[in-house]
Amino acid sequence: MELLFLGTGAGTPSRQRNVTSIALNLQGTRSGCWLFDCGEGTQHQMMRSQVKTGKIEKIFITHLHGDHIFGLPGLLTSRSMNGISDTLTLYGPKGIKAFIDTTLSLSGSWLTFPLEIVEIAAGELFSDEHFRVTAWPLTHPVECYGFRIEEHDKPGALDAQRLLADGIKPGVLFQQLKLGKTVTMDDGRVVRGKDYLGPATKGLTLAIFGDTSPTPAAAELAANADVMVHEATLEVALEEKANSRGHSSTVQAATAAKNAGAKKLIVTHLSSRYLREDAERLLAECRAIFPNTEMAHDFSLFRL
Ligand SMILES: [Zn+2]
Ligand SMILES: [Zn+2]
């Protein structure tokens, strides 16, 4: 999997950071891509990246502030004009459906692909053959969520050579054994799938936060996560100001990662007051608390 940051700024775009959007490329697990938030200009950022609108199968919206959703109408209508017919599922807090329906109808727009809109609450959003995704309430002036993405463990490979050597023929039997099942053969032999499977690969866990001040849900949302993505809107000296607006400081993001036992922290959603040359100083504030921290810039790519 890959995390590509399409926009890493807070509130308003700057020359160096567009507003929030993160693409999770599922490559290696299945084709397709998930998008987390869609600030204004996200489709322009996508055109400068490898992310294709047609590949997006799900969009998760953390909250309805403009810097997280104003890119949606343009992205959806472009996807339609490009002739994409695959279903897209959009998850977001209550009101996301009214926002989409209103902007599309007032602008005389329509979509040629099925758009499923799911208005979410805290808890499990779905669990499919590869992932389980849950939403966790954060602390922000409007309803806001963080998402925990848990990849299921991948079963080990079936040792076909050894099965053949033991006189077990390929076909339906192999499929049963691959699932770890025990089967009885025609000659009465009992064969256990587990005896022919290699070691399972542990699935990855990601925690992607929306805007928040320090919040009680963080410890569980990001518990032992391989990667935690958290906002760091302002430096530690401006912590009070950050908190008064429902945001976190660098140090608070790092403290949340440390308390949750996350393995790696990526900070994003930086105020437009900061320029590229401020990055090192802000990152140092985080690393003093949680050494394995990286800062996301627009088009930063993290291979997981
Ligand atoms: Zn924001
Ligand atoms: Zn916000």
TrEMBL record:
Classification via Gene3D superfamilies: Ribonuclease Z/Hydroxyacylglutathione hydrolase-like
N-terminal signal peptide: none
Organism for this UniProt entry: Erwinia billingiae (strain Eb661)
EC id: 3.1.-.-
Protein name: Ribonuclease BN
Family stated for the protein in its record: Belongs to the RNase Z family. RNase BN subfamily.
Keywords: Endonuclease, Exonuclease, Hydrolase, Metal-binding, Nuclease, tRNA processing, Zinc
Database matches in HAMAP family: RNase_Z_BN (MF_01818)
Broad class of enzyme this protein falls into: hydrolase
Molecular-function annotations in GO: 3'-tRNA processing endoribonuclease activity; exonuclease activity; identical protein binding; zinc ion binding
Function summary: Zinc phosphodiesterase, which has both exoribonuclease and endoribonuclease activities.
